[in-house]
Amino acid sequence: MQRKIVRFVEEENLFYRDEKILVAVSGGVDSVVMLDLLCKMEVECGVAHCNFHLREEESDGDLEFVKNLAKAKNLAFYSVDFDTKKYAAENKISIEMAARDLRYNWFEQVREISGYKYVAVGHHADDVAETVLINLARGTGIHGLSGIKSKLGKIIRPLLPFPRKQLLEYAQAHSIHFREDRTNAETDYVRNKIRHQIMPVLEEINPAIRATMTENVQRFREVEQIYNRVIEQNRLHLVFTRENQLLISIPKLKELLAPVSHLYELLSLYGFHHRDIRNIAESINGISGKLFYSATHQLLRDREYFILSEITEENTKEYLISEDKEQLQAPLELTITLLDRTPGFQFPSDSKIACFDANQLQFPLKLRKWKEGDAFRPIGMKGKKKISDYFIDQKFSLQEKENTWLLLSGSKIVWVLGHRMDDRFKITDTTTKIYKINLI
Amino acid sequence: MQRKIVRFVEEENLFYRDEKILVAVSGGVDSVVMLDLLCKMEVECGVAHCNFHLREEESDGDLEFVKNLAKAKNLAFYSVDFDTKKYAAENKISIEMAARDLRYNWFEQVREISGYKYVAVGHHADDVAETVLINLARGTGIHGLSGIKSKLGKIIRPLLPFPRKQLLEYAQAHSIHFREDRTNAETDYVRNKIRHQIMPVLEEINPAIRATMTENVQRFREVEQIYNRVIEQNRLHLVFTRENQLLISIPKLKELLAPVSHLYELLSLYGFHHRDIRNIAESINGISGKLFYSATHQLLRDREYFILSEITEENTKEYLISEDKEQLQAPLELTITLLDRTPGFQFPSDSKIACFDANQLQFPLKLRKWKEGDAFRPIGMKGKKKISDYFIDQKFSLQEKENTWLLLSGSKIVWVLGHRMDDRFKITDTTTKIYKINLI
């Protein structure tokens, strides 16, 4: 086992022998064996222990145990107390997530301040298998199958090739004492179901299940590399940015072998989930105008592009209107009609209706509240007027101002809704198509 | 459910409504519901039932049940009896595999003879999830995760989107009778462990586990498509054939993002397993001369190429010797030395030693038994001589003939081992390097 860990450290390029390693030691068999192996490799180690205060007396016992272990080995010792439950409640996350956040943040602090090169954590082959199964059960693409990385930033995992059983055998063979680690048993419901109810059955099917899963993961990781490269190459052709928007070419998506995967990799960063993305992908072959929302972003299926933009606060939020749209429910109700210019065309006198020269409009149109600096050319006027000045002229109340919406084509104001059109978009003698909007 | 199956048939392009479908009906809930749904779609169906004779009275009861069902629905009925256990024993395969072979072969016969377009089988969403887990437990790459295809050749699977639970509910709601199918319970050990011990636990973690797994599989399938295309594109650059050999360029493999995956896809077709391929991949950065065997093929890590060739019967088997090889244990023991030609070079008189002009040799050399038609130029002679004539001249016994090995360079015989060299490879005044072989 000592030989195997040395080979693994070399193969995976985890660290050089003269680099200082901060070893995370809970007191459980994994971390205690890891510390022992690293010390036998004559690596300069420090010991870091977190007390999560999840099982009062036992937590304190763990602390005492690890402290003595560090002392016996003559190693620097660092410890910290966390109010894990409080942190979890405050951040509305699970105890498991809370413990993870707290632990890794603190490790990084100690590492940096005390001059360690890496933090070694005790994940092993059982964790790899369990993680794959957890991800499968929760829903995953290829990324969730490529297991746990042996090195990620400053975190290294030298025990990754070893199943827990082997660590226990090593501890026994070398009379290494450790604490029964029950943290997991209490905090991580899903992992425990997998560990205690599923893994033993898989082991009956395949006694070398952990090694097999580690091999599977190695294979998936190569597949993931190929996949990532293809996605990355195609991203360059698919996507460009315009102002604050991300535009994804629909014709180019259609040509791709795996459009859903590409959309997923592009959009999951913006809070869209797999199911949203299935729906978005279906709209590729549908009509334009459909809108999709994540918690932070909206995506419009426009004619040639999916247009992604951030959802900001209500006052600065923009609603896109694609060319095919015939009706809008939110943020305000209106109908849209595209008409041919007929000789007897009468401009409606209703302030709720506006008609524009369709050829002057650039789609998608935008609907938003007014903001400081907005200016337009009120119909019939030659010069520009600030919207704020227009409001003053019209003696708008504060509430009227706040409730006023603007329709924009590109960055130009087309209509102060229900009030005044812009001169640049009016019907002229050369107009052939009329774009008529009716506020309801 | 009726609407969903219609949509699935359309989306996956399973069949047109006017095409005749042979429906595989075991009598279990899956196949009986499938038959009901297809009949409601007004598809012209025939019913095919296999009696595997695995549980005597029950098997007969199933037959009776399905026969009556077909009669009641006024459908053509086909049935067959298999001696599954005998077939399994004869072909040294599991009962499960035997049943599958027999069933699919017979379905295809009936389909073709009786003019059906497709055979519909009752795999459903539970089978998809189970298959993924079985493959993971046994060891798999991406291919084992992409689930069960809804259409493969003439086999279609219209129930794939539905979990078994939904089929049971449908049967109950429509008062559809079915037989308790216990075939699986008795024949398929692994599938049953997954079905009865693992799936229920996963369901506790994620109540929609079957839908989630179906989604996972959709995602993996896209990843697989991307992966397949990349492998296929690179195959063209990596591989060429020479005579009966497949050559894989080692320098080009080294340039690839995922060499192990490429080797796997190239070599798994020839009976190499994943672990063999890990070893082969490791030899990329090692020295040449290493040989790897599958049940049917050998792979030589030569200098620039991996050379794949078939292992034929012992008498026609070829053993490759790469340029760096210094020793051979099988099929016979010999040592190889590369020498500089020195002025005082003495040609050894031992018949067990032969010396050749190294520059005349084309690597890898081949070692094999003689065969009809072989001919060479015995050293000192101008003309060609058939090996069979040489044997007659030398008064070889049958056994001596059978035990005689030939060393070849390309298709030319270099040495009749222990007997006579070929004139074309002898040491001449222009020889600078000598290739010396010593039989032990």
From TrEMBL, chains A, B:
Its main location: cytoplasm. It comes from the Bacteria. The keyword NADP does not apply. GO terms for cellular component: cytoplasm. ATP binds at S26, G27, G28, V29, D30, S31. Its EC number is 6.3.4.19. GO terms for biological process: tRNA modification. It is an enzyme of class 6 (ligase). Residues 365-439 form the Lysidine-tRNA(Ile) synthetase C-terminal domain. Coiled coil: none annotated. GO terms for molecular function: ATP binding; tRNA(Ile)-lysidine synthase activity. Keywords: ATP-binding, Cytoplasm, Ligase, Nucleotide-binding, tRNA processing. It catalyses: cytidine(34) in tRNA(Ile2) + L-lysine + ATP = lysidine(34) in tRNA(Ile2) + AMP + diphosphate + H(+). It is found in: Cytoplasm. The N-terminal region contains the highly conserved SGGXDS motif, predicted to be a P-loop motif involved in ATP binding. Ligates lysine onto the cytidine present at position 34 of the AUA codon-specific tRNA(Ile) that contains the anticodon CAU, in an ATP-dependent manner. Cytidine is converted to lysidine, thus changing the amino acid specificity of the tRNA from methionine to isoleucine. NCBIfam families: lysidine_TilS_C (TIGR02433), lysidine_TilS_N (TIGR02432). Belongs to the tRNA(Ile)-lysidine synthase family. This is tRNA(Ile)-lysidine synthase. It comes from Labilibaculum filiforme.
